[in-house]
């Protein structure tokens, strides 16, 4: 009897280390801006990752763990982003690269992912050309492109008695995309863009630009800036210069009324009309559950905006890829899985990845800022377009 007990204990002592050795750790290299321009957006994306991990780690296959390796690109710094991505794939041996606010940073990381054959999940950067028309085998975008929102906004504006529009955008890839896409949708519908001005990316003083808008006397100003606190700066200039009183409407993609900044914008934002793929005020059950979890974790005054939702969905896609392989990761299989990923349970509605390009496919909602029960909200007026693929790639197919 004593021998049997000894044998059992000895066997257990041998098996325990083996069980630990067989545990699989999946590494995600998460790059965002924890400092520098739009650090607040980076912090929000980080919060989304932490909340996802808290709520969903328990759903991983037995013995599988996920390790998040955080890196700070310090803002729109492609050389820093390139170095960080290189270190993550060569030294840390990550299974996924993810995150990234800025287009130039994402464009710098994409070749690293391709060379190392490590899947790269873009969770914010929105310039269409980051992913070429023919797609990139190891790059998937779960966020948006500016063409998806700005082209239909131009179409809507032309149909709704806006004859002359002044375009004002930040001078980098997404701003140029927004300007070009809006102009196409608007002019194809008979509208006229009276002026197109590109502002320095880092500017915080929008008053001189809005004075020129006011002097031009258009029906509306179409504006794009890269969300964050700059959105509040835009709204302050719009209000201080009296553009609303002059009858000039404010329109743009959803970056200009980003949900977390509405509380800082105040009533100056009321009436601003945007086209976008997400609003924190949406009544979809998946969104209401997401908002409830977010506020329970981060406080009733904290509101997640579109970068949080894209990060949330990006983590969902990565976790689904892990579960599909039972934690035994193969980079090529992960990349192929992400190209066919879809869910009907995103806070923004049904979404999928276009297998030909690796870009997100999603609805676009016409929204207007209103006070709802005393709270400023991006109220979704209608689903303007469903299952929208990146229009730029449709207009510029692979040759």
Structure description:
The chain is of the alpha/beta class. It folds into 2 domains: 11-144 and 283-358, Rossmann fold (3-Layer(aba) Sandwich), CATH 3.40.50; 147-276 and 363-395, 3-Layer(aba) Sandwich (Rossmann fold), CATH 3.40.50.2300. Helix content is 42%, strand content 24%. Strands 6, 7, 8, 9, 10, 11, 12, 13 and 14 form a 9-stranded mixed sheet that branches. Helix 2 (39-56) runs parallel beside helix 11 (306-324), helix 3 packs parallel to helix 4 (103-116) and helix 5 runs parallel beside helix 6.
Q: Biggest sheet, open or closed, and with what strands and sense? A: 9 strands, mixed
Describe the global form. Answer: globular
Q: Tell me the CATH architecture of the largest domain.
A: 3-Layer(aba) Sandwich
CATH class of the largest domain: Alpha Beta
Query: What is the β-strand count?
Result: 14
Output the structural class.
Answer: alpha/beta
How many domains is the backbone divided into?
Answer: 2
Tally of helical segments: 13
What is the average of the pLDDT values?
94
Summarize the structure.
By secondary structure, this protein is α/β, with parallel strands linked by helices. The chain has helices at 2-22, 39-56, 78-90, 103-116, 146-159, 173-188, 207-216, 229-240, 262-265, 285-298, 306-324, 331-338, 391-395; strands at residues 24-32, 64-72, 96-99, 120-122, 139-141, 164-170, 192-199, 220-224, 249-253, 273-276, 342-346, 349-353, 360-372, 375-388. Helices cover 42% and strands 24% of the residues.
């Amino acid at each position: 009897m004593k021998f049997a007990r000894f044998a059992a204990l000895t066997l257990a002592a041998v098996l325990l280390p083996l069980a630990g050795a067989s545990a699989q750790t999946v590494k995600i290299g998460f790059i965002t801006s924890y400092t520098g321009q739009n650090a607040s957006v980076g912090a929000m994306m980080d919060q989304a990752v932490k909340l996802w991990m808290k709520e969903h780690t328990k759903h991983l296959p037995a013995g599988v763990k996920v390790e998040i390796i955080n890196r700070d690109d310090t803002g729109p710094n492609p050389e820093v982003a390139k170095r960080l991505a290189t270190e993550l794939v060569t030294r840390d041996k990550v299974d996924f690269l993810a995150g990234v606010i800025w287009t130039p940073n994402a464009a710098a990381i994409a070749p690293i992912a391709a060379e190392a054959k490590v899947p790269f999940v873009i969770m914010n950067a929105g310039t269409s050309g980051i992913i070429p028309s023919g797609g990139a085998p190891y790059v998937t975008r779960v966020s948006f492109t500016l063409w998806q929102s700005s082209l239909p906004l131009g179409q809507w504006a032309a149909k709704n008695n806006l004859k002359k529009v002044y375009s004002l955008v930040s001078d980098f890839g997404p701003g140029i995309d927004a300007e070009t896409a809006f102009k196409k949708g608007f002019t194809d519908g008979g509208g006229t863009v009276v002026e197109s001005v590109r502002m320095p990316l880092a500017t915080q003083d929008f008053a001189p630009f809005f004075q020129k808008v006011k002097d031009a006397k258009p029906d509306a100003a179409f504006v794009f800036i890269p969300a964050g606190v700059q959105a509040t700066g835009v709204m302050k200039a719009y209000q201080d210069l009296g553009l609303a009183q002059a009858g000039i409407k404010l329109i743009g993609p959803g970056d200009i009324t980003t949900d977390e900044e509405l509380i800082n914008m105040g009533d100056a934002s009321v009436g601003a009309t945007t086209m976008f793929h997400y609003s924190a005020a949406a009544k979809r059950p998946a969104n209401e559950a997401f908002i409830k979890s977010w506020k329970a974790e981060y406080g009733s005054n904290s509101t997640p905006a579109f970068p949080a939702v894209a990060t949330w969905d990006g983590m969902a896609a990565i976790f689904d890829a892990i579960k599909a392989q039972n934690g035994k990761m193969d980079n090529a299989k992960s990349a192929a899985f992400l190209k066919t990923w879809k869910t009907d349970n995103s806070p923004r509605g049904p979404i999928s990845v276009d297998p030909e390009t690796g870009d997100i496919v999603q609805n676009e909602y016409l929204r207007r800022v209103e006070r709802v029960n005393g709270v400023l909200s991006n109220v979704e007026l209608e689903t303007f377009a469903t299952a929208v693929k990146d229009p730029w790639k449709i207009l510029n197919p692979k040759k």
